């Protein structure tokens, strides 16, 4: 699903009830989600049709991805169910190398004839484009894994949970928000199951079953007299988990200042909606921030997006090399900086890892979409840039011979390419809590949740907002602030990182909608961190009068 | 896959509707063929072709609604999808905001389809890529571009006698040209319904020239500047402003368009009186379908007239609640231009900035429509009526409402992303910081 469609679906923008279901796959009844789909024996046979056709036409490499993508979405506002959507999308995508050039084609006609035609189309495109190809594709070797499988370790399959239970939960959250002073509330539950089968001429046949879930809401409080409205979004994170994420386990809750509750691997949506309504009302009368330099204490559900934009994207090798120049942009983290082995990306406590294996994360899979076993690797170690994110046709350009395993396509019908793995900040090694951190700040702002975010095309200059802002004076929270945004430069910002809380504070932030490529594709990715402090950051006041 | 004619589409839709046993039924049929080529580092990177078709059935019993979709159109499949929508409707909770299907409507004949665009070949796409790559390489510049062409149709029928059909073609092109020393970058965007209007050589040359001219940009202090915004720069902010033209959000008090007294800003002057914005599906330079997905006819509609809010969009449900006529959302945005040329705009500027485009525009405060973002791919300093030198990119924090109140002059209209937007000169545009990005 595209980001704009989500906005429409979630009722958070205009035209909430205009359902562009064509973009989501075919609508099906909920119970059809439980149907098993094509078995692996048949999938292998069908994939082999593609691989053999490609080889017979002169392709030097081919891979086939048979995908069944199942989605269930529930949308509500206040006391109403707006929509329940179940969709299924099924088809095959075939990628080939012929004359040293990529070609790709996809079809929902998963029969021998349909696959042959699509493969022929892919080879024809490769051959047509090879005439203007100046950089023949070089693939890093990959192990032949034979027939293997992988599954997201879930406890409750969303497909087996009745829709009525999901609707009741969202309506309870809405009710709690309204009872606590909200004027409006939209809530939604997104559940995704990717059943992906990968086969390549390198000899792997990989069957994967990937689950993701995202509960979210937007609570609005209005003061009509003052002509003001303020919103507070959910403090949930999209997760690579099953429906068990909705259990609201006490053991997975953390307590912050001002009665704030934060959630780790289990989410209490009713409790969060209750708090959200109170906080949205509080925002209506919060003090407007005085612009200036502050020490920022950034909570993981906020910091994750800053990591995403200022570390995740600039270290994508395709951006560094110029493949994304016409859309997402390039990167300040150029090859010479990496080659110098002493590019000071951040302060020496900054250690950032890429990881496609982290349990519960959105990026976790056993194998990527070109059949490479996933792993964890360093991007920044002790503040120094040490590596990028790269896939099979890229790693030779950084003198490496093993793909990092972060190739992904949003569906069977889109071509796979390098996508961001989970990129996370390692927790501090010494025992240090959020409370300890606040005590150590003289003039600062504690920022929670995601807000406005914008960064330039080479990832130098950024501006971020947030959901909630609390002023810290002399080691104590003194009240709520509004109109806060901070502006910084990536390298300066990470070099101002002065303290990181320990592993007990570590949580995942996530996004279902990281966009890249033309035609644009989305990818789901998590970013873990513990609350961290950045000293002397420039804060602007975003309040205006019209 | 075929782009069905009106008659073919009608036959499939009538067949599907004949299976309906629901109180009401509405069926949408659509299909598209699209091809693309992507290039970077002066060589082709990916190319693709996609063909899709889909039929969506929405059945309702009272206010219980179900939707089902299928991509095969034989009789058995059509009956299956209608039955499925009906089963889903019976299982669904009531949607109190459900509106019964519209009756028969009169639609204007659209002018959105051009055969030449529907016939674009892979070879043509490769030629377009080459027409960027060859001249770029000759100037020590690297091209990265994307061409996407499509032909599509959509049709709809319902149990109250409505039938609608449209077919259209589109081509979208963007190219970024970067100088090989990494200090200059230029860009263009072009979009048409008719590919014969597209000149790949001209577009590529414009981007190359901008890249070369923008080399070795100097840093100047951020602050409030007079800006000349090319249409591709202002379109993003204007499009965001359009999103607040929803009457319901305004009436609910959660939009820039909410009025302090509890109503909305309909009839209020919100921007300079020279600002006139309307939508028109039959405009020859930016045509769209003459009906929307709900079957409502789209007509020329004024949104801002002489700076005054003339219309807000009312969904059928909200219009009924408010006792007014529904007003569908616009399918394009057309802003009246003026007679000043870009050259004259520059000549008449004592001190200012010429902006090619804005990038990464995000909402900062929906209350004031404050947005942030950055300039990109060609930003130039103007002094005493002349372009003096390229400048480093700026971050802005600005509201389109403030911007349109600070209007100095209007120039020629240009098509951008299906809209028609004029060159604009704006005073006191707020740049808040500098970026090193090229």
UniProtKB/TrEMBL annotation, chain A:
BP GO annotations: proteolysis
InterPro entries the UniProt entry points to: Metalloprtase-TldD/E_C (IPR045569), Metalloprtase-TldD/E_cen_dom (IPR045570), Metalloprtase-TldD/E_N (IPR002510), Peptidase_U62_metallo (IPR051463), TAT_signal (IPR006311), TldD/PmbA_N (IPR035068), TldD/PmbA_sf (IPR036059)
Cellular component terms (Gene Ontology): cytosol
Claim: Hydrolase is one of the keywords in the record: yes
PROSITE patterns (UniProt xref): TAT (PS51318)
Keywords of this entry: Hydrolase, Metalloprotease, Protease
Record domain Metalloprotease TldD/E N-terminal: where: 62-126
Gene Ontology molecular function terms on file: metallopeptidase activity
Segments forming domain Metalloprotease TldD/E central: 157-252
Domain Metalloprotease TldD/E C-terminal: 292-513
Domain of life of the native organism: Bacteria
Family the UniProt entry places it in: Belongs to the peptidase U62 family.
Protein's name according to its UniProt entry: TldD/PmbA family protein
Organism per entry: Flagellimonas lutimaris
UniProtKB/TrEMBL annotation, chain B:
Database matches in InterPro entries: Metalloprtase-TldD/E_C, Metalloprtase-TldD/E_cen_dom, Metalloprtase-TldD/E_N, TldD/PmbA_N, TldD/PmbA_sf
Pfam families listed in its UniProt record: PmbA_TldD_1st (PF01523), PmbA_TldD_2nd (PF19290), PmbA_TldD_3rd (PF19289)
A GO term for molecular function: metallopeptidase activity
UniProt domain Metalloprotease TldD/E C-terminal: residue ranges: 222-432
Domain of life, per lineage: Bacteria
Residue intervals of the Metalloprotease TldD/E N-terminal domain: 25-89
SUPFAM superfamilies reported for this sequence: Putative modulator of DNA gyrase, PmbA/TldD (SSF111283)
Single biological process term from Gene Ontology: proteolysis
Residue stretches in coiled coil: none
PANTHER family xref list: CONSERVED PROTEIN, TLDD PROTEIN
Family to which the UniProt record says this protein belongs: Belongs to the peptidase U62 family.
Descriptive protein name: TldD/PmbA family protein
């Amino acid at each position: 699903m595209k980001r704009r469609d989500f906005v429409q679906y979630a009722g958070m923008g205009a035209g909430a009830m205009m359902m562009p279901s064509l973009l989501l796959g075919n609508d099906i009844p909920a119970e059809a989600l439980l149907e098993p789909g094509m078995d692996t024996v048949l999938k292998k046979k069908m994939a082999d049709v593609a691989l053999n056709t490609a080889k017979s036409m002169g392709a030097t490499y081919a891979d086939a991805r048979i995908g069944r993508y199942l989605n269930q979405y529930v949308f509500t506002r206040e006391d109403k169910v707006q929509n329940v959507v179940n969709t299924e999308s099924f088809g095959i995508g075939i990628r080939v190398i012929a004359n040293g050039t990529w070609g790709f084609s996809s079809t929902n006609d998963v029969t021998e004839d349909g696959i042959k035609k699509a493969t022929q189309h892919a080879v024809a495109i490769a051959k047509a484009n090879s005439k203007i190809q100046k950089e023949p594709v070089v693939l890093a070797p990959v192990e032949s894994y034979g027939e293997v499988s992988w599954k997201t370790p879930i406890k409750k399959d969303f497909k087996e949970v009745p829709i009525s239970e999901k609707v009741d939960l969202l309506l309870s959250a809405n009710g709690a928000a309204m009872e606590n002073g909200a004027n409006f509330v939209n809530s939604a539950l997104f559940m995704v199951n990717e059943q992906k089968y990968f086969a390549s001429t390198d000899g792997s046949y990989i069957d994967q079953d990937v689950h993701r879930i995202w509960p979210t809401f937007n609570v609005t409080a209005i003061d009509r007299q003052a002509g003001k409205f303020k919103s507070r979004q959910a403090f949930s994170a999209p997760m690579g988990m099953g429906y068990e994420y909705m259990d609201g386990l006490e053991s997975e809750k953390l307590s912050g200042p001002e009665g704030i509750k934060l959630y780790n691997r289990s989410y209490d949506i009713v409790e969060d909606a209750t708090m959200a309504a109170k906080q949205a009302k509080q925002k209506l009368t919060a003090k407007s921030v005085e612009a200036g330099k502050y020490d920022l204490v950034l909570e993981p559900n906020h910091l994750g997006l800053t990591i995403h934009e200022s570390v995740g994207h600039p270290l994508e090798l395709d951006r560094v090399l110029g493949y994304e120049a016409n859309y997402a942009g390039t990167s300040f983290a150029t090859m010479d900086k990496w080659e110098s082995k002493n590019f000071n990306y951040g302060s020496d406590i900054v250690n950032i890892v890429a990881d496609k294996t982290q349990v519960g994360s959105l990026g976790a899979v056993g194998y990527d979409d070109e059949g490479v076993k996933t792993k964890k690797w360093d991007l920044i170690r002790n503040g120094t840039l040490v590596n990028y994110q790269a896939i099979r046709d890229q790693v030779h350009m950084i003198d490496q011979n093993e793909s990092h395993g972060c190739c992904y396509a949003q569906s069977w019908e889109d071509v796979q390419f390098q996508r961001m793995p989970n990129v996370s900040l390692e927790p501090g090694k010494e025992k240090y809590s959020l409370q300890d951190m606040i005590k150590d700040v003289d003039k600062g702002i504690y920022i929670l949740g995601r807000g406005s975010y914008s960064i330039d095309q080479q990832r130098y200059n950024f501006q971020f907002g947030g959901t909630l802002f609390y002023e810290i004076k002399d080691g104590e929270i003194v009240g709520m602030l509004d109109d806060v945004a901070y502006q910084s430069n990536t390298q300066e910002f990470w070099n101002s990182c002065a303290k990181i809380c320990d592993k007990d504070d570590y949580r995942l932030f996530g996004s279902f909608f990281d966009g890249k490529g033309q035609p644009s594709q989305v990818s789901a990715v998590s970013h873990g961190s513990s609350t961290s402090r950045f000293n002397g950051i420039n804060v602007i006041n975003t309040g205006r009068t019209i | 896959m075929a782009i069905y004619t009106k008659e073919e589409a009608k036959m499939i839709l009538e067949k599907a509707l004949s299976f309906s046993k629901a109180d009401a039924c509405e069926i949408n049929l659509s299909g598209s063929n699209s091809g693309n080529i992507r290039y970077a580092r002066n060589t082709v990177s990916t190319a693709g072709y996609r063909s899709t078709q889909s039929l969506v059935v929405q059945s309702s019993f009272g206010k219980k609604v179900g939707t089902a979709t299928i991509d095969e159109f034989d009789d058995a499949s059509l009956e299956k999808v209608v039955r499925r929508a009906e089963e889903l409707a019976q299982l669904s909770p009531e949607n109190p905001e459900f509106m019964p299907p519209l009756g028969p409507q009169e639609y204007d004949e659209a002018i959105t389809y051009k055969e030449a665009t529907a016939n674009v070949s892979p070879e043509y796409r490769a030629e377009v890529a080459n027409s960027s790559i060859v001249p770029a390489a000759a100037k020590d510049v690297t091209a990265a571009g994307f061409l996407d062409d499509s032909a599509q149709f959509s049709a709809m029928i319902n149990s109250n006698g409505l039938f609608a059909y449209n077919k259209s073609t589109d081509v979208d092109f963007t190219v970024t040209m970067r100088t090989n020393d990494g200090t200059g970058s230029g860009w263009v965007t072009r979009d048409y319904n008719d590919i014969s209007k597209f000149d790949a050589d001209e577009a590529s040359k414009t981007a190359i020239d901008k890249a070369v001219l923008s080399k070795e940009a100097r840093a100047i202090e951020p602050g409030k500047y007079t800006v000349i915004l090319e249409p591709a720069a202002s379109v993003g902010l204007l499009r965001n402003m359009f999103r607040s033209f929803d009457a319901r959000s305004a009436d609910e008090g959660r939009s820039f368009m909410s009025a302090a007294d509890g109503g909305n800003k309909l009839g209020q002057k919100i921007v300079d009186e020279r600002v006139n914005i309307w939508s028109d599906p039959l405009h020859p330079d930016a045509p769209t379908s003459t009906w929307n997905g709900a079957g409502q006819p789209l007509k020329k509609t004024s949104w801002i007239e002489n700076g005054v809010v003339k219309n807000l969009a009312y969904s059928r449900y909200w219009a009924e609640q408010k006792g007014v006529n529904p007003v569908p959302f616009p399918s394009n945005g057309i802003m009246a231009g003026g007679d000043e040329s870009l050259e004259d705009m520059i000549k008449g500027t004592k001190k200012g900035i010429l902006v090619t485009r804005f990038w990464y525009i995000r909402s900062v405060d929906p209350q004031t429509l404050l947005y942030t973002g950055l300039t990109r791919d060609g930003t130039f300093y103007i002094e005493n009526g002349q372009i003096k030198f390229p400048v480093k990119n700026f971050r802005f924090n600005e509201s389109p409402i403030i911007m349109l109140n600070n209007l100095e002059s209007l120039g020629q209209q240009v098509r951008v992303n299906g809209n028609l937007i004029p060159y604009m000169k704006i005073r006191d545009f707020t740049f808040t910081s500098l970026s090193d990005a090229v």
